[in-house]
Structures are given as C-alpha cells and as structure tokens.
Design goal:
Largest sheet: 5 strands, parallel
Shape: elongated
Bound molecules: iron/sulfur cluster
CATH topology of the largest domain: FAD/NAD(P)-binding domain
Number of domains: 3
Helix content: 25-40%
Radius of gyration: 27 Å
CATH superfamily of the largest domain: FAD/NAD(P)-binding domain
Number of strands: 19
Strand order of the largest sheet: 6-13-7-8-9
Distance between the termini: 71 Å
Oligomer: single chain
C-alpha cells in the first residue's frame, strides 16, 4: 500500500514551491465580495495581518471534522486509556509507534466501524475501507497481533474493495457484525446478529467516527451566500448536472465540503473544478452575464427592502440617497423572487414582464 502521508508530503511541497500559488495557512477569511471573474476576499493572516486578494473564482474545499465519540459515552473515548480515534491511530502509525499507554505493544486490537453513523443519519462511506487499511498496518507492524473489526454494515463499493476485503480476511482479521457495542476497561461487550451477548478482551480500540461538516461551514455559507443540505454539507447546484458548482456563479465546492468522500473522489472533484474555472475564465474572453435579470423601477419603488431579504444571491442593494433598491445585474440569477415579493410592482424580470406573460397566456389560449 502506498503511504498517503508520503503522497501528501510531495503534493504540499509542489504547491508551496509553485510561483503561481500563494498559500496562507492558519488564516481566516473575513469577507468575500463580488462575482465570477471579480471576487475580492479579505483575509486575516496567522500574523494578524489584513490582506485583500482579487480572484476570479472561489473554491470551497474546507474538508470535514470527525464526529466526536464522546457524544456516545458507551464507546469509552476519553474515559479509558488506549481507546483512539482513527485520526489518532493514523498519526501513531505515521510515527511508527503503535504502542499502548504503558509503552507495550498491543496483543489484540479492535476496530469499531460506524461510530456516530446512526446519530448522523448517513454512512460516511470511507470508514470501512480505511479500517481494512488499519487492520493491514497492524498485521504488518505487529507480529501475532489479533485484529477484530466490529461493524454494523460493511460498505465497500467499487471494483477494488471487495478483493481488498477478502485479502484482509485472508490475513487473519476477524470481521463481526455487532450491535449494542459497549467498551469497558480492556474489553468490548456487544451483541451478535442473533442477539447473543459476547465479551471480547482487547488491549487497544480504534474508533472509526463519522465524517461531519467542518465547524465553520455555517459561517462560510452565510458569507458566500451558498446553501447547505440538512446534514450541514455545502450543496451542489445539481446532483448530476452541476456536481461541483453552487447556486453562486464562480463559487465551486470540492471534496468533503460537499459530503463525505474518499481521496480519489476528492481529487476527481478538484480536477473537475479546475476544468470548470479554466473553461469559464479565459483571458481576453468577455463574460456573458445572465440576460434574464431583474430590474427595479425607481419611480415605483417604495423602499420597503423586502426584495433584499428574499434575494438568495445578494444581488440587490439599497441606495440610501435615493431610498430605492437597485439590482446588481452581474449577481442576479433571474430567479424572480424579488418580483414575486415586491408589494409595489417596482421589480420586474427583463423579458418576463407582466404584459409579456399575459400576452403569452392569451396566445396559448387562442
Ligand atoms: S420590494 Fe419592491 S418596493 Fe420594496 S424595496 Fe424592493 S423593489 Fe422597492
Ligand atoms: S431575480 Fe432573483 S437573483 Fe435577481 S435580484 Fe431578484 S431575487 Fe435576486
């Protein structure tokens, strides 16, 4: 197995050494304004310096957080020594020290899949495959270690994983479908499929927690005016036809920011985003704005600002001097919300005026 850590080290070096890429780590995005081809992002750097950068597109690739197993006390995380999350175990393995708190090598290890799956209400889709990888790390590094995988459902899609699973089983790893798992001091209590209570003595437990949206996803969604799904992940424009674009033109999503996924799928999404940006921002080519945009009649607008509240794209601003609302045509997506909500009939959609629609209906009924 190729080490993901080594692959990443090289990629990080490539990015840092690329003269066309400026990297800010540990910075904070304070504000993003603008539209496709003309965004301005205000950042606060690690050194508390305020920086403004001009960009043509924005890619939200904010990754994920791991579900905190402390939310389910029966997993014993934080209570018993030698109960680790997958991330902690991965670090341990990278450092080449798979050891118990007392400094000894574990003789038996249990890997618990699906931690938090029920609570979150979805399968993260990657925990089973990386749990197989962990089992193989353990078998390769520790002679005679007993490894048991406890799962509620095994999710191993794709052409390679079934073979990987069979091979892992062939290495002597036990796979048990278990429910009501409860971790105790140096043992695991669980029920088998037919309801029998079992007790499995183990030295070390590795928990594979669910993938959840990153903690600042809600703040970022508000700032960028993009939507999130019921689980809190950023929503794509269309599941099949726009899997990496968002409701805001020029803002894209990639990787686990959009939903749990593995490294390969994240790379594919990243490449798709790069392709979309390169094909929409061509040097020298004029951007064509949406033709069906809203317009507001200054004479009819009563300044109630209802339209500002209903515009999901932030395309309307209020002119304090004239006391009327104004549409930014570059941002407007022609959804018609402002037209439907305007109490004075001041907002209308170009090429979709009431007279035009009325005439269309008349012609259709003729
Ligand atoms: S809802 Fe209509 S009247 Fe009210 S501010 Fe907007 S355009 Fe003007
Ligand atoms: S048509 Fe939709 S996007 Fe355009 S200004 Fe009105 S509410 Fe905003």
């Amino acid at each position: 197995m190729e080490s993901a850590g080594k692959l990443l080290e090289q990629k990080i070096r490539d990015v840092e050494e690329n003269k066309n890429i400026k990297v800010y780590t540990d910075g904070e995005v304070k504000e993003v304004l603008g539209f496709l081809g003309n965004f301005i992002a205000a950042l606060k750097t690690r050194e508390s310096e305020e920086v403004e950068i001009k960009v043509g597109s924005v890619v939200v690739a904010t990754g994920f957080d791991l579900f905190d197993p402390r939310e389910i006390p029966r997993y014993g995380y934080g209570k018993f020594d030698d109960v680790y999350t997958a991330l902690e175990f991965e670090r341990m393995n990278l450092e080449g020290k798979i050891l118990l708190k007392n400094g000894q090598s574990p003789k038996s290890v249990a890997i618990i899949h699906c931690v938090g799956r029920e609570k979150k209400g979805y399968c993260s889709g990657v925990c089973c495959s990386y749990s197989l990888k962990f089992a193989r790390y353990l078998k390769a590094r520790l002679a005679d270690v007993k490894v048991t995988s406890l799962y509620s459902e095994l999710s191993l899609p794709g052409k390679a994983y079934q073979k990987f699973y069979e091979e892992t089983k062939g290495m002597g790893v036990d796979f048990i479908r278990a429910k009501e798992i409860e971790i105790e001091e140096k043992a695991i209590k669980y029920r088998t499929e037919d309801g029998k209570e079992q007790n499995l003595p183990v030295d070390m437990v590795i928990l594979a927690p669910a993938i959840q949206p990153s903690s600042d996803a809600s703040k970022l969604a508000k700032m960028l005016k993009i939507s999130r799904d019921g689980n809190g992940f950023f929503t794509e424009e269309h599941e099949k036809l726009g899997p990496v674009s968002t409701s805001m033109e020029g803002i894209f999503i990639a990787g686990c920011a959009q939903g749990p996924k593995n490294v390969v799928d994240s790379i594919v999404q990243g490449e798709a985003v790069a392709g979309r940006i390169l094909s929409s921002l061509i040097p020298g080519k004029k951007l064509e704005p949406e033709v069906r945009t809203a317009e507001i009649s200054e004479a009819l607008c009563i300044g109630c600002q209802t339209c500002l509240e209903v515009c999901a794209y932030g395309a309307i601003y209020f002119d304090e001097l004239k006391r009327v609302s104004v549409v930014n045509e570059v941002l407007c997506r022609g959804c018609g919300n402002c037209v439907a909500s305007c109490p004075s009939g001041a907002a209308s959609l170009k090429h979709f005026t009431t007279t035009q629609i009325h005439q269309e209906v008349v012609e259709a009924l003729r």
